[in-house]
Write a structure and sequence with these properties.
- With about 240 residues, the chain is mostly helical.
- Among the domains are: about 100 residues, no CATH class; about 55 residues, no CATH class.
- Helix content is about 40%, strand content about 10%.
- The chain has seven helices and four strands.
- The strands form two sheets. Strands 1-2 form a two-stranded antiparallel ribbon.
- A hairpin with a 4-residue loop joins strand 1 and strand 2.
- Helix 5 crosses helix 7.
């Protein structure tokens, strides 16, 4: 009987050791439901851990000091956690890359930029969005027609390379600038019509027929921005 107990003792000790190791390496499945914002699930600890505490790789920085990953369209690749991007002010030299880039404020009427610059902010990704005037006129659907918040040199460069590749002969930048200037008068005319609709309490969906009327009077305003969605954007811009 004593010999059997001695034989069982090493076996029980080994089993205890293995169970202890197993407990340390136990795999905890992620609970069902939406993940917590700014956290990820640690399968070993069995708890949510903050993503902010993870070390960052400084080798991912771009040439203009941004560490945001971009896709081929120049738009930021969204991470698993919804985090507010670092403030990045717009730089005038980016217009050398994308001559048609337009900066539009996204703040409500009377609001100021939440950054330290406040009302003196000349435009950043916290209070503005970048649009491409040429894409707006062409009716193209991409990040620069919906409002690009990725204030990044690579975003302008990537957009230009995909949607506005260099053409042989002529100065492309001057050609784009000229096209925008020629269309600016038509946009101003459409905005005046939108302002009239607002003052007279007429639905903005009437913008198309109103522009058709002005065309009959010898003032053609083109085909772009003559729609209800553009009219709503103009109303918000005028209100701001």
């Amino acid at each position: 009987m004593a010999e059997e107990e001695k034989k069982e003792e090493p076996k029980n000790a080994f089993a205890a050791m293995m169970s202890s190791v197993a407990r340390k390496k136990k795999w905890h499945p992620q609970p069902a439901g939406r993940p917590r914002a700014g956290h990820k699930w640690d399968h070993h600890a069995g708890d949510w851990v903050s993503i902010e505490s993870e070390p960052k790789d400084d080798n991912d920085n771009d040439d203009d000091g941004d560490n945001t990953d971009d896709d081929d369209d120049g738009t930021a690749v969204a991470g698993t956690a919804k985090r507010r991007p670092a403030r990045r002010p717009f730089k005038s030299e980016w217009k050398g890359l994308l001559a048609s880039v337009i900066l539009v404020s996204t703040l409500a009427s009377g609001a100021v930029c939440p950054s330290d610059d406040g009302a003196h902010c000349q435009g950043c990704n916290w209070c503005s969005a970048m649009f491409c005037g040429e894409c707006q006129m062409a009716g193209t659907s991409n990040a620069f027609t919906k409002g690009c918040k990725n204030f990044h040199k690579a975003a302008c460069r990537g957009h230009m390379n995909i949607w506005h590749p260099p053409r042989i002969g002529g100065n492309v930048a001057e050609g784009i600038a000229k096209t925008i200037d020629e269309h600016a008068d038509k946009v101003k005319g459409i905005m005046k019509n939108v302002l009239w609709l607002g003052k007279e309490s007429v639905a903005v969906r009437k913008i198309k027929t109103l522009c058709q009327l002005t065309k009959l009077h010898g003032v053609p305003l083109g085909k772009h921005y003559v729609n209800e969605m553009a009219a709503r954007d103009f109303v918000m811009a005028i209100a701001h």
